[in-house]
């Protein structure tokens, strides 16, 4: 985690924003931006606040974020740098999540549930980790709550399709039926009124 007390707002990128008072990690320029980010940030803010940064097992362990299939909330975890791959072909790997029989990833599901839309069906355990410098890099770095927002945005943009805005054909047809029945009812009422007048 960067030691600077001010940084760019994670929502609107406004410079010199203070940190979240609870996790002391993500930067927010205002309560409004903090509220916008809370559905995602809230999944991990408390966990980061209580994560013991001085419990690093060795200098070669780094703070990663794990998304486990059966946990609704992601978690921070120390992982030894040598276990983190130098580079990952995300796309080819992501596609196998759909066909390898792995359980649905509930941690990622919690993130994509914060926004409407049709998303990629992430499966199996997923670890997000930080690397320093250009790929291929052997140097690792700790992830923090600012990274978590970017990771969440990755899940929220990968294979995302906008919610259907035009009503389905069946619904349009049903509306037409209601409309013609209303016209029929008006004609009947008018006919009854004419009959009563005579
Ligand atoms: Zn802001
Ligand atoms: Zn926080």
Which strands sit side by side, in order, in the main sheet? 2-1-3
Bound molecules: zinc ion
Number of helices: 6
Question: Helices and strands: which structural class?
Answer: alpha+beta
Number of strands: 5
User: Runs with pLDDT <50, length 5+?
Assistant: 88-92
Q: What is the strand content?
A: 5-15%
N-to-C SSE string, H for helix and E for strand: HHEEHHEEEHH
Task: Report mean pLDDT, rounded to a whole number.
Answer: 80
Radius of gyration, whole Å? 26 Å
Instruction: Give the total of domains.
Output: 2
Keywords: Membrane, Metal-binding, Transmembrane, Transmembrane helix, Zinc, Zinc-finger
Protein name: MYND-type domain-containing protein
Domain MYND-type: 9-45
Transmembrane segments: 177-197
Description:
This protein has 198 residues and is of the alpha+beta class. The chain folds into two domains: 51-157, no CATH class; 166-198. It has six helices and five strands, in the order ααββααβββαα. The longest helix has 29 residues, at 169-197. Residues 88-92 have low confidence and may be disordered. The structure holds zinc ion (2 copies). The site of one zinc ion (ZN) has 7 residues, from loops. Residues 9-45 form the MYND-type domain. Keywords: Membrane, Metal-binding, Transmembrane, Transmembrane helix, Zinc, Zinc-finger. This is MYND-type domain-containing protein.
């Amino acid at each position: 985690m960067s030691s600077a007390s001010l940084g760019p707002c994670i929502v609107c990128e406004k410079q010199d924003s203070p940190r979240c008072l609870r996790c002391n990690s993500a930067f927010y320029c205002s309560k409004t931006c903090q509220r916008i980010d809370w559905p995602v940030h809230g999944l991990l803010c408390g966990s980061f606040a209580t994560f013991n940064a001085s419990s690093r097992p060795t200098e070669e362990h780094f703070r990663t974020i794990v998304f486990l299939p059966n946990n609704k909330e992601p978690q921070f975890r120390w992982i030894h740098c040598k276990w983190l791959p130098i580079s990952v072909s995300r796309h080819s790997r992501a596609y196998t999540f759909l066909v390898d029989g792995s359980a649905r990833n509930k941690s990622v599901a919690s993130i994509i549930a914060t926004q409407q839309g049709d998303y990629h069906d992430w499966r199996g355990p997923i670890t997000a980790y930080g690397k320093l410098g250009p790929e291929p890099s052997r140097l690792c770095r700790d992830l923090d709550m600012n990274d978590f927002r970017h990771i969440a945005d990755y899940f929220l943009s990968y294979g995302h399709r906008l919610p259907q805005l035009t009503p389905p054909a069946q619904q349009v047809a049903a509306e037409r039926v209601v409309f013609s029945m209303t016209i029929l009812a008006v004609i009947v009422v008018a006919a009854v009124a004419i009959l009563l007048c005579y």
